[in-house]
Specification:
- It is a single chain.
- The chain is mainly alpha-helical.
- It has a domain at 52-147.
- The chain has 8 helices and no strands.
- Helix 2 crosses helix 3 (65-74), helix 3 runs antiparallel to helix 5 (91-113) and helix 5 crosses helix 7 (128-178).
- The longest helix has 51 residues, at 128-178.
C-alpha cells in the first residue's frame, strides 16, 4: 500500500540547537578562510610557459644527465615539501630546498671535478655518507621551518615584556612628577 500524498505545507522542522548552529557557521567561516589562504587569486602559468619550461628541463636533463640523476635523488625531500606545502609563499619548500641543495652541492662539485659521468654519479649515490649528509641537511631544513616561528614568537614576547616594563617605569615617573590625576585624565587627541 502506497503512502498517502501530502498536499500543502511541509511539516515544521525542529529548530536547530544554538550551539550546533554556531558550530556550523564557525566551520563554514574557517573553510572560507582556508580557501582564501590556499589560493588567493593565484594565476596559473600559461600553456606556452609551461611547455617551454618542460622543454628546458628535458634539455638540461639530457645535457647533464649525471648531475640530474644526483639532484633527482638528492632533492626528493624538497619535492615532498613542495607537495605538502599549501601556503602560497611556500616557506617549507624554501627552507627544506635551500638546505637540501646545500647538502647536495659538495657532491655535485665532486661529480664535476671527477669527470661528470654516470659511473661517478652512481658511485656517489651508493655511498651511505652521501645520503646521510644530503637527507640530514634536508632534516635540518625541516627543523628550521618548524622551530624558527616559535623562536621568533618567544623573542617578540621578551622584547614586548621589556617594552612594557620600560613604559611602566616611565608611567611611575610621570605619576611621581604630576600626581595621580595623570592616570585619570582623559586622553586629548593631538591636532
Amino acid at each position: 500500500m502506497a503512502a498517502p500524498i501530502r498536499i500543502g505545507r511541509p511539516p515544521p522542522r525542529k529548530p536547530l540547537n544554538p550551539r550546533k548552529l554556531a558550530a556550523k557557521t564557525a566551520v563554514r567561516k574557517a573553510l572560507k578562510r582556508r580557501a582564501a589562504i590556499i589560493r588567493p587569486g593565484v594565476k596559473r602559468p600559461s600553456l606556452l610557459r609551461q611547455l617551454s619550461m618542460g622543454v628546458v628541463i628535458i634539455a638540461l636533463f639530457i645535457a647533464a644527465l649525471p648531475s640530474a640523476i644526483l639532484l633527482c635523488f638528492g632533492m626528493l625531500p624538497t619535492m615532498c615539501a613542495y607537495l605538502i606545502d599549501r601556503l602560497p609563499q611556500r616557506y617549507a619548500t624554501r627552507c627544506v630546498g635551500a638546505l637540501n641543495f646545500a647538502g647536495c652541492w659538495p657532491y655535485l662539485l665532486n661529480l664535476w671535478k671527477d669527470g661528470h659521468n654516470m659511473i661517478e654519479a652512481v658511485h656517489i649515490l651508493l655511498e651511505p655518507l652521501t645520503w646521510l649528509v644530503i637527507y640530514g641537511s634536508a632534516a635540518a631544513g625541516w627543523l628550521c621551518f618548524l622551530s624558527f616561528p616559535a623562536v621568533a614568537w618567544a623573542l617578540m614576547d621578551v622584547f614586548a615584556g621589556r617594552r612594557i616594563a620600560h613604559l611602566r617605569k616611565e608611567q611611575r615617573k610621570l605619576i611621581e612628577d604630576w600626581g595621580d590625576d595623570v592616570t585619570r585624565a582623559p586622553i586629548q587627541p593631538m591636532l
